[in-house]
Design a protein that fits this description.
Blueprint: H1 2-18, H2 50-54, E1 59-64, H3 67-83, E2 90-95
Parallel strand pairs: 1-2
Length: 100
């Protein structure tokens, strides 16, 4: 009976790890500084690096190539940031134009 339980645990762990999707930076990984052009929010008109400016505060950064969807993404992110203001959550929606 113990052997079957152990086998089930090993098989379950293998299936869980095989189906796990990882996106973006993982916990503990460092992000490089960059200087986006801020078009809205408290940093409007600057090129401040969000990481350098807000250091250890929690933040959500959305990258999109779809400029038609960017406003909807930004609105949802603004609501999320407002709901978590007590944690000093910061949010950024970046539209990538692909011309770099």
């Amino acid at each position: 009976m113990e052997r079957m339980t152990l086998m089930a645990l090993v098989m379950g762990a293998a299936v869980a790890s095989a189906g796990e999707v990882k996106s973006g930076l993982q916990p503990g990984e460092e992000a490089a500084a960059w200087n986006p052009i801020h078009v809205a929010g408290p940093d409007r008109g600057t090129t401040k690096c969000p990481i350098c400016t807000y250091l250890e505060r929690p933040m959500v950064v959305i990258f999109t190539k779809d400029s038609t969807n960017a406003a909807a993404l930004a609105a949802r992110l603004e609501r999320l940031v407002a709901n978590h203001a007590r944690h000093e959550l910061k949010g950024f929606t970046l539209v990538i134009d692909g011309t770099a």
